[in-house]
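Good morning,

Attaching, inline, the backbone tokens for the sequence recovery test we're adding to the shared suite. The designed sequence is right after.
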């Protein structure tokens, strides 16, 4: 997929405010410091489209970006960041749960995980929640440039083993680096295929 147009559409603080047109949503979510904004900017080829903050947890709203006038890339609030107030925190906030579990326009969800870290309980709980509710999702490992090739493989193997304890079939897995551009084509190709009408 080639992205020729990427425009900020709107920010929503509740589900009732998301766009009402028929274009599908491809959403991105992860813990607050996982590198989501950098990945979104990499995918769209627009350096400042999603604001990259030095302070994790800045995204508090659902942000819709209109891509090629064909679909929306959706930047969801990060979850589990401890410095926000308890009311805002609620690990998976009402805004996140309302969108992920109730928004019919969400076509696919990418869960971002920092490849450098051991599997984190909050990520595994979120992934389990998606499986319980039948939400279609894939996993994008970020910050791959911070590890050697051998370290990346070890980390991926560790995640696979952990996920296989719960899952008979693993979701699609992608490895990315916003610094090096790794994973961009694979993720965009996957999105393009997922948006094609089902062939009968």
């Amino acid at each position: 997929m080639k992205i020729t147009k990427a425009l900020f559409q709107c920010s929503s603080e509740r589900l009732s405010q998301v766009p009402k047109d028929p274009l599908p949503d491809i959403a991105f979510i992860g813990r607050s410091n996982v590198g989501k904004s950098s990945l979104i900017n990499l995918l769209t080829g627009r350096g400042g489209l999603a604001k990259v903050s030095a302070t994790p947890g800045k995204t508090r709203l659902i942000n819709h970006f209109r891509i090629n006038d064909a679909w929306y890339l959706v930047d969801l609030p990060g979850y589990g960041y401890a410095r926000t107030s308890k009311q805002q925190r609620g690990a998976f906030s009402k805004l996140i749960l309302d969108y992920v579990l109730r928004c019919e326009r969400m076509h696919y969800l990418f869960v971002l995980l920092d490849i450098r870290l051991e599997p984190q309980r909050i990520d595994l709980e979120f992934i389990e929640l998606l499986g319980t509710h039948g939400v279609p999702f894939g996993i994008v490992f970020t910050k791959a440039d911070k590890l050697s090739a051998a370290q990346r493989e070890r980390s991926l193997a560790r995640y696979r083993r952990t996920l296989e304890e719960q899952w008979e079939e693993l979701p699609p897995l992608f490895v990315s680096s916003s610094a090096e551009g790794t994973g961009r084509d694979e993720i965009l190709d996957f999105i393009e295929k997922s948006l094609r009408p089902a062939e009968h």
